[in-house]
């Protein structure tokens, strides 16, 4: 299969100028058609995937050029050692960036919840105390849900778009109905368990059964949760090997 430079740019989410730069540097193989336009094939796609992986790890153009040059040479122990050293270097850089990203997310989460605490301390708390306990609980659940959604995405715009989709649009289409039937019962159980009713039920259960029987029930419940979680992972992974998901 052959690709024009426009198709190649759309396939990898880059500009045509970037592809021209890579081909001029000898990083990305291509041919020319009768109009002297660049034409790419499946081999070009494979090379571009490798280039993007190295670029995503923070590799410089010089490192990418060196790695590509080594790939075109005859296989030898020295060649493999040099390529391995480049990969190890970029792996270390990727881990460093990952730790920086985690620290940034942690800082943003602390700032976000810090601002919420300040707002509640200044004026929201007075209004919340006047509300019934049920409404205060709903407020807490909604706040946690929206907060989790925002920080589940690497880009604020995507998180905002997801939040918008949660509170707007058609309330019950085929997709939302399927998700509601799939996850609704579990969400309802979790929401109910987060209220004082869950604690009261557990305490009454302990009074009736006794501590020893309650321990057995606890272990059985945790075992059921583990089995359900494992079943969910297997059913959603399209892979019979469960450990791939872990």
Walk me through the structure.
The protein is elongated, with a radius of gyration of 27 Å. Helix content is 77%, strand content 3%. It contains ten helices and three strands. The longest helix has 54 residues. α4 packs across α5.
List the helices and strands and how they pair.
Layout: E1 3-4, H1 5-12, H2 16-24, E2 31-32, E3 38-40, H3 42-56, H4 61-72, H5 77-130, H6 133-151, H7 156-167, H8 174-193, H9 196-209, H10 211-237
Antiparallel strand pairs: 1-3, 2-3
Helix pairs in contact: 1-2, 4-5, 6-7, 9-10
Q: Quick summary of this structure?
A:
The chain has 246 residues and is mainly α. It has helices at 5-12, 16-24, 42-56, 61-72, 77-130, 133-151, 156-167, 174-193, 196-209, 211-237, and strands at residues 3-4, 31-32, 38-40.
CATH architecture of the domain at 3-93: Orthogonal Bundle
Structural class, by secondary structure, is mainly alpha
| Helix count, DSSP H or I runs of 4 or more residues | 10
The value of Rg in angstroms is 27 Å
The parts where pLDDT drops under 50 for at least 5 residues are: 238-246
Q: Using the coordinates shown, work out and report the CATH topology of the domain at 3-93.
A: Multidrug-efflux Transporter Regulator, Chain: A, Domain 2
User: What is the top-level CATH class of the domain at 3-93?
Assistant: Mainly Alpha
- Coarse morphology: elongated
Strand order of the largest sheet: 1-3-2
Biggest sheet character: 3 strands, antiparallel
Report the span from N to C terminus: 36 Å
Strand content: under 5%
Number of E-type strands? 3
Portion of residues in helices? over 70%
Mean pLDDT: 80
Give the SSE order as H and E letters.
EHHEEHHHHHHHH
């Amino acid at each position: 299969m052959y690709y024009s430079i426009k198709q190649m740019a759309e396939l990898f989410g880059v500009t045509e100028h970037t592809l021209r730069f890579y081909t001029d540097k000898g990083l990305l193989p291509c041919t020319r058609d009768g109009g002297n336009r660049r034409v790419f094939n499946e081999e070009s796609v494979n090379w571009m995937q490798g280039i993007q992986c190295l670029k995503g790890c923070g590799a410089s153009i010089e490192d990418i050029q060196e790695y590509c040059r080594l790939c075109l040479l005859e296989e030898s122990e020295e060649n493999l050692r040099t390529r391995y050293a480049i990969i190890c270097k970029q792996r270390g850089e990727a881990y460093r960036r990952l730790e920086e990203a985690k620290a940034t997310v942690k800082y943003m989460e602390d700032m976000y919840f810090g601002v919420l605490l300040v707002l509640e301390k200044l004026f929201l708390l007075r209004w919340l105390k006047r509300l019934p306990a049920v409404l205060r609980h709903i407020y807490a659940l909604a706040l946690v849900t929206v907060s989790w959604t925002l920080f589940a995405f690497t880009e604020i715009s995507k998180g905002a778009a997801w939040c918008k989709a949660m509170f707007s649009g058609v309330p019950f289409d085929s997709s939302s109905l399927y998700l509601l039937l799939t996850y609704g019962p579990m969400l309802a159980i979790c929401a109910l368990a987060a209220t004082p009713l869950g604690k009261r039920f557990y305490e009454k259960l302990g009074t009736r059964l006794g501590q020893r029987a309650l321990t057995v029930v606890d272990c059985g419940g945790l075992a059921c949760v583990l089995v359900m979680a494992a079943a969910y992972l297997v059913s959603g992974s399209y892979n019979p090997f469960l450990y791939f998901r872990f």
